[in-house]
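User: Please predict the structure of the protein below. I'd like the answer in structure-token form so I can feed it into my own downstream comparison script.

Assistant: Understood. Taking the following sequence of 62 residues as input:
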Amino acid sequence: MMCNIGKVDKIIRLVLGAVIIFWGVMNNSWFGAIGLIPLGTALMGWCPLYSIFGINTGCQIK
């Protein structure tokens, strides 16, 4: 897996994932589990959908 998520994209995914998880916990809903997807992709630095569509949001491979 090559990195395909840039810094700004990671920050957005981390915040969005945390907000969805927090909302799910506050409302006692399993919907919060969906927040694990953006959170996980941000932590891995790789998004499978970006790979399929050939998108790279600025990750620099060293």
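That's the full token string. The chain has a mean pLDDT of 92.
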